[in-house]
Design brief:
The complex is a heterodimer. By secondary structure, chain A is of the alpha/beta class. In chain A, 62% of the residues lie in helices and 14% in strands. Chain A has a 5-stranded mixed β-sheet, sandwiched between helices. In chain A, α2 packs antiparallel against α7 (213-289) and α5 packs across α7 (213-289). Chain B is α+β, with helices and mostly antiparallel strands. In chain B, strands 1, 2, 3, 4, 5, 6, 7 and 8 form an 8-stranded mixed β-sheet that branches. The chains are: A alpha/beta, B alpha+beta. At the A-B interface, α2, α3, β2, α4 and β3 of A face β1, β2, β4, β7 and α1 of B.
Chain lengths: 290, 138
């Protein structure tokens, strides 16, 4: 039987761990709220820019921007958004599973895949398993900025413009609720008409364009894609915090269970040693008196 | 007196929203002043100052690093960029992302080992589920 002192030390160390997981749980819980606000804050921009693109598309019905035209698929691009840090349960694993499923699907069609990775976990994952990674963006911190993502996105957009890839997708976790997050694959390029809600645009008036609508379209489309990826990054961060909160909560509960069990063992060990001492004293006394 | 609703939004959040008598913005073709009932206009903005004269006659200044300006007769929307943009700057950012990737994935083959990836993920998932189950039993 383990001795009392050993068990006591163990209990103390588990208690310390529990304190840490509890603190992480609370920190994550407070960050969820902020991340959700950030998600909400990005919505007006995306909606407006979508409306503007709709107008631009209507302005020159004959001109088709290459980003709006569907073409034969020979090679595809994926922007994969993961978390920067771990300790968030099965969040990244589930997302990678979806991503790998996608890669498998393209492979079976003999289509090659380029990857652009956001988040240190994705970089780690593909470093181990290989992959044609063209760009990365890591260490976005608690508040992702569009600025940090521009490079990784531009690489893919350029690839598309130059015809190296024929479709572009985004993989990230979708925030369903605090208890549930699910991986989502979204098509970014070509931008489909449905995404832009063109059917709702039947106004008679039109803008004056300065400079030409075709030129403006370039700028607007790029910002549209960027805002989509940015939203993905913010949403993924909200997911990370939610998953972390749940994971840390169960870790705290588990630590509580372990402490309880250890306490029982400790009590038993203490009882045993007391019993032994008493029996030794009684035995000793008996020997003296006998 | 008619007024215009002015919204300045960026991808990261709303910057300003309110009514105004007059708005000035640095359009790419030169500064524009927008009074109520302006004709619908869509233009790109260059870095510069946006000046808003609100209904109380107070002036508000915003520095923007570029973006888009959308004008409707009673609504002005500025889609502001969150950072300084430019072909060269963007190019530099792209190059940086590419270098980061090369740095992080030195010596990694171009082909994802799909079979191994699936195996590892399945294992990680099974372990996770087992842990969950074990927890439920207690």
């Amino acid at each position: 039987m383990a001795n009392e002192k050993e068990i006591r030390t163990k209990i103390r160390s588990v208690k310390n761990m529990q304190k840490i997981t509890k603190a992480m749980e609370m920190v994550a819980a407070s960050k969820i709220r902020k991340a959700q606000d950030q998600m909400e804050a990005s919505r007006p921009y995306a909606e407006r820019i979508r409306r503007v693109i709709g107008h631009l598309g209507n302005a020159n019905p004959d001109y088709k921007h290459p980003w709006l035209v569907e073409r034969e698929v020979k090679r595809v691009g994926y922007i994969i958004i993961s978390t920067d840090r771990g300790l968030c349960g099965g969040l990244n694993v589930n997302m990678f599973k979806t991503a790998i499923g996608e890669l498998q699907k393209w492979k079976s069609q003999n289509v090659e895949v380029d990857l652009s990775l956001v988040g240190a976990k994705a970089v780690q994952f593909f470093r181990r398993l290989g992959g044609n990674v063209v760009g990365t963006a890591t260490h976005l911190g608690d508040k992702p900025h569009v600025n940090d993502l521009i490079g990784a996105i531009k690489l893919m957009l350029d690839s598309y413009s130059e015809g190296r890839i024929d479709r572009l997708f985004l993989v990230h976790n979708e925030f369903v609720s605090t208890m549930s997050q699910k991986p989502e694959v979204k098509s970014l390029l070509p931008v489909s008409a449905i995404d832009l809600g063109e059917e709702t645009l039947q106004d008679h008036w039109d803008y004056i364009y300065e400079p030409e609508a075709t030129e403006l379209l370039d700028d607007v489309l790029m910002r549209y894609i960027e805002s989509q990826v940015y939203r993905g990054a913010v949403e993924n961060f909200a997911c990370e915090m939610a998953a972390k909160m749940v994971a840390m909560k169960s870790a705290t509960d588990n630590a509580g269970d372990i402490i309880e069990e250890l306490q029982l063992i400790y009590n038993k060990a203490r009882q045993a040693s007391i019993t032994q001492e008493i029996s030794e004293i009684v035995g000793g006394a008996a020997a003296v008196s006998g | 007196m008619p007024t215009i609703q002015v919204d300045i939004v960026s991808a990261e959040g709303e910057i300003y929203s309110g009514n105004a008598n007059m708005v000035f913005a640095p359009a790419r073709m030169g500064e524009v002043g927008i009074a109520p009932r302006h004709a619908p206009l869509l233009t790109a903005l260059k870095p510069g100052e946006v000046r808003i004269e609100d209904t109380d006659g107070k002036e508000h200044f915003f520095y923007i690093t570029g973006g888009m300006l959308e004008i409707q007769p009673h609504l002005v929307t500025i889609l502001a960029d969150t950072a300084l943009r430019g072909e060269q700057l963007d190019e530099a950012a792209a190059l940086q992302a590419q270098q980061d990737a090369e740095e992080a994935l030195k010596g990694v083959s171009g082909e994802t080992d799909l079979a191994r990836a699936q195996l590892e993920l399945a294992e990680a998932r099974a372990r996770y589920q087992a842990a969950q189950k074990l927890k439920g039993k207690r």
